[in-house]
């Protein structure tokens, strides 16, 4: 794209590389690359698909501390999404569908899955569905926490530090030491990403393969009819 600008962030110690490409006037996101840490993926994807305006400092989208700065400003990526934004492409579930389900009483991820079918196919949108859920509950005056899911009383950043500091190498050890239950399609892929970022293990080795969502496990994109491309 003529005049396009690129911003990148690299952490050689953590084996993380992030890059965004924006248009010449720094108002629209054109593309992104995330290696080693992809937690911004859903926000960046929705920002590009829906043509959302970029922040005044575009590089803040991939720089450490962006989540905290967004929280301080009183908004998050999902707050800016239009109601028509597609949250679950597998089952064609929009943000409006999810917000309506929440208003009708589906106030947990499990209830939203049952009601809307969001995050019941490939599972890749589960973190984004959770973000919409928390944002909508906060809008309704309900107090919510920043726990990554019901199995870990920690945020994603806190889990990263636990893995790094305590040299935890497997999900089983992580949930045994700091969580409970068997895990879910939110914490398992997140843990897989954290473990890969910290220890550079092959993500599909037997001890890690079961943590991946189906798209990553099969290195393909699941379609509505169950086939892969």
From TrEMBL:
<dbReference type="GO" id="GO:0016491">
    <property type="term" value="F:oxidoreductase activity"/>
</dbReference>
<keyword id="KW-0411">Iron-sulfur</keyword>
<keyword id="KW-0274">FAD</keyword>
<protein>
    <submittedName>
        <fullName>Nitrite reductase (NAD(P)H)</fullName>
    </submittedName>
</protein>
<keyword id="KW-0408">Iron</keyword>
<dbReference type="GO" id="GO:0051537">
    <property type="term" value="F:2 iron, 2 sulfur cluster binding"/>
</dbReference>
<dbReference type="GO" id="GO:0046872">
    <property type="term" value="F:metal ion binding"/>
</dbReference>
<keyword id="KW-0534">Nitrate assimilation</keyword>
<dbReference type="InterPro" id="IPR007419">
    <property type="entry name" value="BFD-like_2Fe2S-bd_dom"/>
</dbReference>
<keyword id="KW-0479">Metal-binding</keyword>
<feature type="domain" description="BFD-like [2Fe-2S]-binding">
    <location>
        <begin position="87"/>
        <end position="134"/>
    </location>
</feature>
<keyword id="KW-0349">Heme</keyword>
<keyword id="KW-0285">Flavoprotein</keyword>
<dbReference type="InterPro" id="IPR041854">
    <property type="entry name" value="BFD-like_2Fe2S-bd_dom_sf"/>
</dbReference>
<dbReference type="InterPro" id="IPR052034">
    <property type="entry name" value="NasD-like"/>
</dbReference>
<keyword id="KW-0560">Oxidoreductase</keyword>
<dbReference type="GO" id="GO:0042128">
    <property type="term" value="P:nitrate assimilation"/>
</dbReference>
<dbReference type="Pfam" id="PF04324">
    <property type="entry name" value="Fer2_BFD"/>
</dbReference>
<keyword id="KW-0001">2Fe-2S</keyword>
């Amino acid at each position: 794209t003529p005049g396009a600008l690129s911003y990148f962030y690299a952490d050689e110690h953590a084996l993380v590389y992030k890059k965004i490409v924006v248009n010449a006037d720094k108002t629209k996101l054109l593309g992104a690359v995330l290696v080693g840490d992809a937690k911004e993926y859903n926000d960046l994807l929705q920002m590009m698909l829906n043509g959302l305006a970029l922040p005044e400092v575009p590089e803040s989208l991939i720089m450490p501390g962006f989540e905290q700065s967004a929280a301080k400003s009183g908004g998050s990526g999902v707050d800016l999404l239009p109601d028509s934004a597609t949250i679950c492409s597998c089952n064609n579930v929009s943000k409006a569908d999810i917000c309506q389900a929440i208003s009708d009483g589906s106030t947990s991820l499990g209830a939203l899955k049952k009601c809307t079918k969001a995050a019941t196919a490939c599972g890749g949108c589960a973190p984004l569905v959770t973000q919409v859920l928390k944002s909508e509950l906060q809008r309704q005056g309900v107090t919510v926490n920043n726990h990554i899911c019901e199995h870990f009383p920690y945020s994603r950043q806190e889990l990263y530090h636990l893995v790094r500091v305590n040299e935890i190498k497997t999900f089983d050890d992580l949930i045994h030491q700091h969580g409970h239950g068997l895990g879910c399609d939110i914490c398992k892929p997140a843990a897989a990403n954290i473990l890969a970022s910290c220890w550079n293990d092959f993500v599909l080795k037997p001890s890690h393969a079961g943590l991946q969502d189906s798209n990553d496990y099969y290195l393909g994109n699941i379609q509505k009819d169950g086939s892969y491309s």
